[in-house]
Write a structure and sequence with these properties.
Elements (H helix, E strand, L loop, with lengths): L1 E10 L2 E11 L4 E5 L6 H8 L7 E6 L2 E2 L5 H7 L1 E4 L11 H8 L9 H14 L1 H4 L11 H13 L5 E5 L7 H18 L2 E5 L3 H7 L2 E6 L2 E7 H6 L1 H8 L7
Parallel strand pairs: 3-8, 3-9, 6-7, 7-8
Antiparallel strand pairs: 1-2, 1-4, 4-5, 9-10
Helix pairs in contact: 3-6
Length: about 240
């Protein structure tokens, strides 16, 4: 589905991504792990068209998308849940969801859009109780639910998640990751996830990549990464066999 080849990304004269290559298969979930500044979010932003690569290729189902604008990439089936949620704080929950479907508004009926809103509200019952509420007044967890729901309104085949657990209480984190797992089972959405909570990410991802200063330094199955002593020391905060 997604293939990144020899990607390079610069911010001004500073190189942030260095000859990075990875793949994501149809229906798969992979996670990117690394310290702050390793280039994880930059990679996500390059895939979604927010940052333009300096060199290399980004292929979606064999089509080069590395130079396409963000709105065109959404239409091709990629949707991003950005770090920090970035909801439309002054609009209602429902209006945020409607805006998530902007690429569909010219081709689908209001009934179809409302049906998708209903599906999101079934997935996140707390949003149903707040559907008319101004989004900026929601709790952090509710805002994350709204950001995910808004991304789903475009009916993506690939969902990009940038730090979905950031700043959330443990029970909310568990609910968010359970929802991501359920999405993949029910809708076969592929997921590329940046996540500081390595333990939670490796529980739902099939594979993981570890980045250091813009390079991939390790790639393996999630199980193998969880059992790797270096990964445990750097990201899992425990000895071998830790849950």
């Amino acid at each position: 589905m997604l293939e990144v080849k020899n990607l390079k990304v610069f911010y001004d004269k500073v190189q942030v991504i260095r000859d990075l290559s990875l793949r994501l298969d149809d229906g798969e979930c992979i996670t990117l792990l690394g310290a702050n500044g390793a280039g994880k979010s930059t990679l996500i932003n390059a895939v979604s068209g927010i940052v333009e690569p300096s060199d290399g290729s980004i292929l979606l189902d064999g089509e080069e998308i590395g130079k396409k604008p963000a709105y065109a990439i959404v239409r091709l089936g990629i949707s991003q849940v950005p770090e920090g949620r970035q909801i439309f704080a002054n609009l209602s929950v429902k209006d945020n969801l409607i805006l998530g479907a902007y690429t569909r508004s010219s081709t689908e009926s209001k009934r179809e859009i409302n049906s998708e809103i209903e599906h999101v509200l079934e997935m996140f019952p707390r949003l149903r109780d707040r559907v008319g509420q101004i989004a900026g007044t929601l709790s952090g967890g509710e805002q994350q639910m709204l950001a995910i729901g808004r991304a789903l309104m475009s009916k993506p085949k690939l969902l990009l998640l940038d730090e979905p657990s950031l700043g959330l209480a443990p029970l909310v984190v568990r609910f968010i990751f359970d929802t991501i797992s359920r999405l993949r089972e029910e809708s076969r959405i592929s997921v590329l996830m940046v996540e500081q909570n390595a333990r939670a990410a490796l529980k739902i991802a099939e594979r993981g990549y570890i980045l250091e200063t813009g390079r991939i330094v390790m790639e393996d199955t999630s199980e193998a990464l969880r059992d790797n002593p270096e990964v445990q020391k750097a990201f899992l905060g425990g000895a071998a066999g830790a849950a």
